[in-house]
Amino acid sequence: MAVHTSQSVAKAAGDDVARGRSRGTGNPPPPSRLRRALSVHWYAWTMVAPVVLVIGVIIGYPLVRGIWLSLTDADERNVARSIGVNKMPATYEFVGLDNYADALTGNQFLGTLGWTLVWTVSCVTITFCLGMALANILNRRIAGRSAYRMALILPWAIPGFVSVFAWRFLYNENNGLLNKMLGGAGIDGIPWLNDPTWAKFSVIAVNVWLGVPFMMVALLGGLQSIPSEQYEAAEMDGATAWQRFRHVTLPGLRPVSTTVVLLSTIWTFNMFPVIFLLTRGGPGEATQILVTQAYKFSFEISPRDFAQSSTWGVLILVLLMLFAMVYRRVLRTQGDNW
Amino acid sequence: MTTVTATPATAPAKHGARKVRKRGDRSPAASLALHLTLIVTSVIAVFPVLWVLLTSLKPAKFASTTDFFKETTFENYTNLIKDTEFLSWFGNSVIVAGLSTVIGVFVSATTGYAVSRFRFPGKRGLMWTLLVTQMFPVAVLIVPIYNIMSTMGLLNQPAGLVITYLTISVPFCAWMMKGFFDTIPREIDESGQVDGLTPFGTFWRLILPLAKPGLAVTAFYSFITAWGEVAYASAFMVGDENLTLAGGLQKFVNQYGAQWGPMTAASVLIAIPAALVFLFAQKHLVTGMSAGAVKG
């Protein structure tokens, strides 16, 4: 992937020469390794510095603090707070790994994890298949292609909370358009968001609706980068349409699809707004995924349970990192150098 | 793959028996099926948004009727602007999203360029960090970030939200820009250096102008992220006139209970700027993404 630019190679080499010479003449000791690294890499480091700084402060500190809280019994009643003019110091205590033991042995975490996995796998699979189908259709010569493309990307252009609101409007049990249409056809209204099973179906549908445009655009870009000679060659060899798809399109899309599947898995696993705005995790806890439940612990229950919320958050992070590592390992054994 | 046993002489004859079609041609039936699929999916994609638009044009008392048009009126819009702080929410959102976009694009471009062109200590770690950052659940970060912002006096300030949004959009955008820069030939950098440009000069004068599609996608993504974010916006901004649209609409939902009319009007007004940015970016979207996200 990244290779030295000729310039940085030359610079590094020049540096070595200079260093050798200075050592030869017995001048003051060569500059420290850090200084040397700085002189070679300073522009690269300058260019990434803003990102490193912002991520370090805004993500690094909260992460460290989150991990610390997950090892304590912090909740609303014992964290540092001020009531009027009185400042109450924090009185929570270090409890080791108790929170983790509780989470991993209790039913709540594992149950929520189960639904989160179902949610992630079904959303990513359906979104990917639909995106793949639509990208393939749009990649052909077809009348009105750009109009179709605009229409299909639209859900991506609308802010998430607006489209989730639009869907709530459609799903509304008494006045929503969907049930009115069913009613017109003589079918009883469906409790889209009020029945545990239907609610699960509904949130997945909305998330797929939101996710297809990204998938489609990414795959369409990938399709356009496959050289048409490969298709011609396959056709010369007598490959059927299916064989061309299977042996030319799919391998050609591999770099694209591995990345978008990884990203959309991560995003879906942590998809807070859809669940939160559509059902708030309800009815009951039926559609609660790990993130929304963790949010609930620290904002919606009383007393607010910061320790448990952090514990769940750290577990989410660990699970996703494990997933990313396994995913990359698998890709690497299959010959990707990513 | 398949071994061709037919002799060259018989092959054309066999083809001749069926109707010969050039590559890319298809039967009318196939065309019809494709168009039908596209029409159905396009309707599904557009309809929820369209329905909100149509509802916003009906008088509030007819909001839940199924007619497409009923006594078309703009009263929902005028009420919205008269009775609420909608315009200041809108202004706040424009400031926050605009700043996030400009800074986000610049920062992701420099980061993406550095990661694409230079080999430096910490590069692998940085790439991993950018990926891992996207895995962070809002729920864990929101309380500590709130504390940081209040220590720095950035609560209720657009700057606080801008910084937070950068942490959401920049990791993905930097990845995408890296992929995009990877597709720009290195010879261009080298020629710049031969002509005596510094690495920054090369980046600024030669590479950035070539990376416009990538920049358009990055801008689009940063804008949409900032424009539509709910959780941080409602936690960090308080006071009626400081809210952004996302926070404002939440307030509004409670205030109006089950009345859909004013809410649909607000939704339409919120969606318009996003759609405009989208229109501007969309012709670059496919090329930008194909080079970018993709080759990560």
UniProtKB/TrEMBL annotation, chain A:
Principal cellular location given in the protein's record: membrane
Transmembrane region(s): 42-64, 117-138, 150-171, 201-223, 256-278, 306-327
Keywords associated with the record: Cell membrane, Membrane, Transmembrane, Transmembrane helix, Transport
SUPFAM superfamilies recorded: MetI-like (SSF161098)
Chain segments carrying region Disordered: 1-32
Subcellular location as annotated: Cell membrane
Source domain of life: Bacteria
Coiled-coil segments on the chain, per record: none
Record-linked Pfam families: BPD_transp_1 (PF00528)
Cross-referenced InterPro entries: MetI-like, MetI-like_sf, UgpAE/MalFG_permease
Domain (ABC transmembrane type-1): residue spans on this chain: 113-327
Annotated membrane topology: Multi-pass membrane protein
Assigned protein family: Belongs to the binding-protein-dependent transport system permease family.
Protein name, UniProt field: Carbohydrate ABC transporter permease
Top-level taxonomy: Bacteria, Bacillati, Actinomycetota, Actinomycetes, Kitasatosporales
UniProtKB/TrEMBL annotation, chain B:
Topology relative to the membrane: Multi-pass membrane protein
Residues covered by region (Disordered): 1-24
Domain ABC transmembrane type-1 as annotated: residue spans: 90-281
Compositional bias ranges of the Basic residues kind: 15-24
Main location: membrane
Sequence similarity: Belongs to the binding-protein-dependent transport system permease family. MalFG subfamily.
Listed name of the protein: Sugar ABC transporter permease
